[in-house]
């Protein structure tokens, strides 16, 4: 019986074995195809990075070689530096370096891109490059020489030894200590050298993600953790400080020193409230209470009024609603400082209001806290009628006012602000009130425009 059964089952077992083998082979082939494709993408991005860094070094040298009075040549060179730096940044993001400390090099390239862009867009006939900026350009050229040589050395090792980027990805993902990987070692050396460079003068303004808050703008004395805990209790109006956790941030760097506060829910829910305070002065810069908002029982105008009362009850004064958005039954209203009928956009506060109970559930006030300074709001040299002449004749203007904004050079400028429609789109356009130059154009969604109009009424 067993013999007969084995004779019957044998062909099926053979077929199953053949099927499993074919399936395993196809899976192996598919996996290899994916790995080869990923390796090719990594290799392309790496060699592109080496090429762009080499071109960047050459372009910096060419820019320094032109005559100091040749404004078009300088502008062209700086535009090319900005373009190549941006391409190098893009190449880096395509490499498996997320687990490798390479942030100093990325920061350096980001600041170089911002520096070259700011220099290229300004009017050099009125603002030629200063001695300090020329010194920065020379320093960037010297640094780029070193970075290019290091990356080129890694490239030579990759080509000579047929090194694979997939091995780098596996090594970085492994919890074991990495040994003898030429690519990882090369990029680590580059980042250490960049980290050892002296601080450069990047000029006024920098990328917002790298900018340091000016603590001189803050009023008040330095706070302790216990004082911050008391401030959190007073702000939330809770009976005691039981369960409140306070963590100090920033280490020895004054511009990053702050306190983070976590407050457990006062009811049976697991929702926590988070707050951030500055160490100097104990100013609240962030507040978020997470909870579900199942329905919207109140409208925008009611939410705006509640947000206004909330801001007036605390340290955020003289603000006017400028924009509105709604998501999952929560209203997000942005306020900007208003002074002499001029909207000061750099001084902003964002408030979140739950539309089921009109409870304020969030606040973001970093721009407001760190932008407090005395501003001289002068009289526009250009009338609103002359400013309107700079607009497209087909733009139907629906609103106009004065505003202070930050331009591409990170400078605060007084502008005539126009809101208008064209080609079924709504635009907000800022015309420099002194020289008549178009500073910025923003596209506004239809629902945002209607909401902002309602919020201001």
What does this structure look like?
- With 457 residues, the chain is α+β, with helices and mostly antiparallel strands.
- It folds into 3 domains: 16-195; 216-369, no CATH class; 384-456, Roll (Nuclear Transport Factor 2, Chain: A).
- The protein is 45% helix and 21% strand.
- It contains 11 helices and 12 strands.
- A hairpin with a 5-residue loop joins β7 (342-354) and β8.
- α1 (2-65) runs antiparallel to α2 (71-93), α1 runs antiparallel to α4 and α3 (103-121) crosses α6.
- Residues 205-211 have low confidence and may be disordered.
- Residues 30-167 form the Sporulation protein YpeB N-terminal domain.
- Pfam families: YPEB_N (PF20769), YPEB_PepSY1-2 (PF14620).
- Residues 186-377 form the Sporulation protein YpeB PepSY1 and PepSY2 domain.
Helix content: 40-55%
Q: How many structural units, i.e. domains? A: 3
What is the SS-derived class? Answer: alpha+beta
Distance between the termini: 93 Å
Low-confidence stretches: 205-211
Secondary-structure element string: HHHHHHHEEEEHEEEEHHEEEEH
Q: How many beta-strand runs?
A: 12
Largest sheet: 12 strands, mixed
Transmembrane segments: 7-26
Organism: Paenibacillus roseopurpureus
InterPro entries: YpeB_N, YpeB_PepSY1-2
Pfam families: YPEB_N, YPEB_PepSY1-2
